[in-house]
Amino acid sequence: MTEEPTERATIGRMINLIARRWRQRLDERLQPFDLTDALWLPMLEIKRQGGALHPKEIADALRLDKSTMVRTLRTLEDRGFVIKTPDEADRRAYYVTLTEEGISRLDDVLRLSRIIEDRVLRDIPDIELGTLRRLLGTIHAVLEEDGR
């Protein structure tokens, strides 16, 4: 049974339900790409930050623990989407970069993600989307500040 946000739900609960359903929808559409939400977000972070990153940098940016990130990166490496390069300054560490296949796959996923987002938001006027972005930004900033 799918739970729907209602007027009685708290804002936090509504955000959680929407985020979960959005991820499910995306994961369903990502199956042909051999990716899930949990796998493509680290790839996006590598691209967003411009290239070679340590696993800890990716984990910190995505608010994940390092052991989860290491397992995720191992899966991405096994699928040919990332490669590890030793860190010359610290032989115990390594950098992670996207492969050509990883870049291509990420571009496909980003296009798909935009299609889903456009579909979900198509009936909401731009002015209301602007308000929604500002409100979510405010909520995010408060949560970030409270986490320090």
Automatic annotation (TrEMBL):
Domain HTH marR-type, first and last residues per copy: 8-141
Keywords noted in UniProt: DNA-binding, Transcription, Transcription regulation
Family annotation (Pfam families): MarR_2
Highest taxon of the lineage: Bacteria
Signal peptide, first to last residue: none
InterPro entries xref list: HTH_MarR-typ, Tscrpt_reg_MarR-type_CS, WH-like_DNA-bd_sf, WH_DNA-bd_sf
GO molecular function terms noted in the UniProt entry: DNA binding; DNA-binding transcription factor activity
Annotated PROSITE patterns: HTH_MARR_1, HTH_MARR_2
Keyword Transcription regulation annotated: yes
Transmembrane segments: none
Full protein name: HTH marR-type domain-containing protein
Organism of origin: Swaminathania salitolerans
